[in-house]
Design goal:
Length: 535
């Protein structure tokens, strides 16, 4: 019978308590690997994380007049539906401090990587425990940039593939509902990955047609998701889909740079060595499982269904690999575009592992082996985050001098102090907006591809800061007080030597505090000048 039922080889045999213990150990492993760096540091060593916290506070306190967010921002959540992290954080902020709430939300979204891969392995009629290897990219380069939404979308994408394979294998209303829910969540997590899921659902329908009893189970999820895509297409932000400058012929040399874009996080080579060692353990795991499958000839499900299902996963990997070779580094306001796709491709590779033996002791052994293999990598990252936290002590001291809802201009000249190659200090002052509200000199809201934007300056109720030049946050030397500083009352600078010369043209600006390389200045009068003038 096409599709058929799960073969006996996929059923687990042995003492049930061992199975429960295996799952308990798996849950503990996911919790530790994902949560330890967040727990170790007051501020995670993630470049964009401060703006995740600030943006979450906008969602939480938008109607609170004391935070002054309504004066600045207007939502466009359907046009740019990248809201899962911010909405979830805002909910947690009801009972938790802003940064703690954002860390909790980010941790839950990063946990979607192993959970999504688990669902995909389950959809391939294999043990879901194989998906534990989805923990490897949790703390790679993308996470340290702060691309939590992209990584969460990868997990949801894998989850959608697994559910779709189950829907065509064993159709049910519950599975269809779960698939629809995952697709909707993927849409509101990152719309960029959403079309990939729709394409892969079509691929599953085409490949599995004739191999299963019916592919009609995919029809309703495809219709619902397609309708959502059409609504988004008609309402998307004008600049959200800029022209893509494709690289052709493919940049094959990027294949040799894969380690750089996935695991070269810190200064030095220790991080590369840690990821290489963990990758070798994954390769050894694959070799052992393959040997068991060959010897026992029962580790893979029987029938004509399994090979096409794995081919579908291979297609998804090849699509991401092709994008890695052909996409540019920048697309509109988005940067670091093509490097993301090598992580997307490698993330799905563990789904191709041969199945585990049926015995529950083998499942428990696999979980313990995986935990032992990945834990050193998690410990290494946790130590780096803990060390970074010690370098932010003076920042925490100096921001205590700021009032509620300040008009804050910040300049980061000094990026030294952390192991990370990509500066984790560049957006650190955004934590002020996360915890106290107010205005910032730079904000992602000035880009069209963000779930909220600055209000129109012509609106009489709008109070918005001036737009900043391109790459302003990375080029503080562009700062001119008369051009960029008239709107602001507070000035926070990270610099080795005194920044007094930057404010010399306005004698009313006085230094308030200095802690190590952080300097705080204040203009004790109302800001002057047009609030939204673009320099």
């Amino acid at each position: 019978m096409p599709g058929g039922r799960i073969e006996p080889a996929a059923r687990v045999t042995g003492p049930q308590p061992l199975s429960w213990l295996a799952w308990l150990c798996a849950a503990a492993t996911i919790t530790y690997v994902v949560g330890a760096p967040f727990w170790a540091a007051d501020y995670p060593m993630m470049t964009e994380f401060p703006f995740h916290a600030a943006s979450s506070s906008v969602f939480r306190h938008y109607t609170d007049p004391g935070w002054h967010f309504h004066e600045q921002f207007a939502f466009q959540m359907l046009a740019v539906p990248q809201v899962t992290l911010y909405a979830l954080s805002a909910i947690f902020m009801i009972v938790l401090p802003p940064i703690v709430a954002t860390k909790l939300a980010a941790g839950l979204l990063l946990a979607l990587l192993p959970l999504g891969l688990m669902v995909l392995c389950w959809g391939l009629r294999k043990s879901a425990l194989l998906g534990l290897w989805g923990l490897m990219p949790v703390w790679g380069v993308l996470a340290h940039w702060g691309m939590v939404d992209f990584l969460a979308a990868l997990g949801l994408f894998a989850m959608a593939l697994g559910l779709a394979l189950r829907v065509v294998d064993r159709p049910s209303v519950k599975l269809q509902g779960a698939l629809i829910a995952v697709l909707v969540l993927l849409f509101f997590t990152q719309a960029y990955r959403f079309p990939f899921a729709l394409v892969m659902l079509v691929v599953i329908a085409l490949v599995m047609r004739g191999r299963v009893e019916s592919i009609k189970g995919l029809l309703i999820p495809l219709v619902v998701a397609g309708a959502l895509f059409v609504v988004w297409w008609l309402t998307r932000a004008e600049m959200f889909l800029p022209k893509v400058q494709w690289v052709w012929p493919p940049a094959w040399h990027r294949l040799s740079d894969a380690a750089t874009y996935t695991s070269d996080i810190y200064i030095g080579d220790e991080d590369l060595e840690m990821f290489r060692r963990t990758g070798l353990l994954l390769g050894l795991t694959a070799a052992v499982l393959l040997a068991i499958a060959v010897v026992r000839l029962r580790s893979w499900p029987k029938g004509g269904w399994v090979v096409p299902a794995h081919v579908i996963v291979g297609v998804a990997i090849l699509i991401s690999l092709g994008l890695y070779l052909t996409l540019p580094m920048e697309v509109g306001a988005s940067w670091y575009v093509f490097p993301r796709e090598i992580t997307a491709a490698l993330f799905l590779v563990p789904a191709l592992l041969p199945n585990l033996p049926r015995k529950t002791w083998a499942h428990l052994g696999f979980v313990i082996w995986t935990a032992v293999g990945i834990a050193p990598l998690a410990d290494f990252v946790t130590d780096a985050h803990r060390e970074f936290s010690t370098t932010t002590v003076h920042f925490r001291e100096i921001v205590r001098e700021l009032p509620k809802a300040p008009k804050l201009l910040y300049l980061v000249y000094d990026h030294q102090g952390a192991r990370a190659r990509n500066s984790p200090y560049i957006h650190l002052p955004a934590y002020v907006q996360a915890e106290r509200g107010g205005w910032l000199s730079f904000h992602f809201a000035q880009h069209e591809g963000f779930p909220f934007r600055y209000r129109d300056a012509a609106d009489p109720d709008a109070v918005v800061p001036p737009r900043t030049p391109v790459r302003w946050e990375w080029s503080p030397q562009q700062f001119q007080l008369d051009q960029h500083g008239r709107f602001f009352d507070w000035f926070l600078v990270r610099r080795q030597r005194s920044p007094a010369s930057l404010f010399a043209s306005d004698p009313s600006i006085r230094r308030v505090a200095h802690f190590e390389n952080w300097w705080l200045y204040h203009r004790p009068r109302a800001s002057a000048g047009p609030p939204s003038e673009t320099p």
